[in-house]
Design brief:
alpha+beta; At1g16640 B3 domain; 5 domains; seven-stranded mixed sheet; 28 helices; globular; SEC_C_motif; SEC-C motif domain protein
Amino acid sequence: MVMSDKDAGAALAEVIGGGVVPRSELRDRLAEAGYRISANDVDRRIQMDPRFLELGDGIGYIPGLTEGVAFSLWIDPATAAEGYILMKPELDAIGWWIVECAVDVFDESGERIGDIQSDGWMIDDLDTDVVVGPDGWLDAFSDSWVAFRVRQGKLVIEQLVGPPEVDPDRAAAARTAFYAVADHQQYQPHGSDEVVDVMRSQVSTVLHEAIRADHSLMAGEPLPSSTDLLAAAGLRVERRSVVPADLDPEVLADADRERQSMFRWGVDADDALGAQILLGAIGLYAVESPMAFGATPDEQETSPVMFEALLERKSIATVVAYECSETEGCEAARGLAATVAALFEDDPTSWAMRWLVAHCDLVLGDIDSAAVVLDDLPGSTGYLPVLIDRARLAIARSQAKEAQKLLREAERLVEDLPKLTLLPHTYRKVIDDLQDEIEVWADNTPPPMARRNERCPCGSGRKYKVCHLGRELHPIEDRSLWLYHKMVRFAREQADDEIDSLAGVLTDVMGEPSLWAEMIKAPLISDVVLHEEEFEQGFLDGRLSTLPDDEVLLAQQWMLVDRTVFEVESTSPGSIELRDLGTGEMIEVVNVDDNPMSRPGSLLIGRPLPVGDIYRAFSGFMALRPDLVQAALSVLDDKDPDALMELLGSMHRAPEIRNTDGHEMEPTEVTWC
């Protein structure tokens, strides 16, 4: 018979009791107690139920381990009035138990106060763990010292006359526990030959180990506050960790940054430090600090060489490109990289800072400038972000097969990134998005332009096989869809704030703010940003030399097409004929699905774009009520994006039901007896 999760948890709690059981012995002990639970179910229960904890190679059960232990703290009147107390650090040892389930709380007389639970609140802009309970549960204890004692799976609040004294034996036990469970980080401060052993642990881990080592010592009389107990043990709580009291705060802060960087990026300490140095210099450059290149003349002279050498390390280049993947901050990265690259312009072997300039140009939308650098880089660097940047350039040139080849190579390199970090997920998503964009174009080869040994029709004078063979372009009638997708991607990369804002206006007027996440993906919103917000011009300005000539001409033509109101005149399979109500012009729009909006007489608002003699509605249409035609034409003439969103949102707002006096009616539930 398969045990439920609840029953499996109860069995584990019974077998573990108040001790810590080696993980390797758990199943045998369960079997001896008559419970048959698979190894996978045991591991899953321990993983999913935070009442169970790991100490070394052993498993404990928090309510059992802490039975009889009383954790003291002062109840702040300010937080008591709001019905909460801070969980850390004083109640950290039982915090995960409170997270898992509501815990019954009693006073010393045995009267039930209610149940309490942990919650996460934003306090002073920090995500803070708090303990909350029923209304008024702290009123009797406000501005006084209390102890939360664990008793048979429940908590009892005991009133204290003051803060408990620190027992030297308990302080020694806490110190011994810390050195038994602390993590060690061998940290070498920048510019120093000394290696510092930075030791850290968590309040809960130290207390759990001290209780495990000598339960009788830690139970009974209330423990002093965790802060006082740890201080007496020669320890302190800083940056949410327990550390030796004599550890230099600056060393701890720097070591924390290094460790967080190692976890975030999946790199070793040397590469974490190297990436921090480069990103720190970029941050200083952003605020125009003279310290960006060092504090002394010697540092300022040697730092460019160091920056170039650091960026030539593959892991550091991967990290820096990841951190410089948004438009915000890329201006500073580009400025610093350009300054360094200028110093090495006569050295063809120094390429890393030139690449970073090109990478930032790509992020900022200046593809033409990026192309000048990327085309001049060494042929094969084997660097993940360089491959992706070159793929983006190939896509701008509509070279789908070249882009596909580069992305597949990049995909293989992603597999080598550390799995449990942010980098592989982010890079894989970038690659997947680009592959989705080019797939249909890469998988369908355009017809050849000439025979292999004939001169290439492009006019280069070279043979076709070494010039444009394999780089042929699809017909512009087909490629127009890809061009539009490039423009939409540009809008989403460069104008995400504008897209977010317009989607917010639309959904607010609709009275459906929950649809915001869906609306930011709507083709209409991106098209409004491109045209009414005039991001089309920015798209072209950065690609005049890179886009194929026919795409430049088509994009310039699209810039002249305004959004307007149409009436459907007639329909045929796959197309509709529309009359522009502003000008009276008739156009044919192809690739249109048959739906109620396409029926003759329907009114539509949209911006179909010309492709040769026909039009295509890349951004779709929205139906328009007849009474809003003049208002729509006026709004569209003003090219006010917010006003347009308000108009469209008003058409989709739920109707208000009012009585004959004009008062809003409220729904009433009638129950028949």
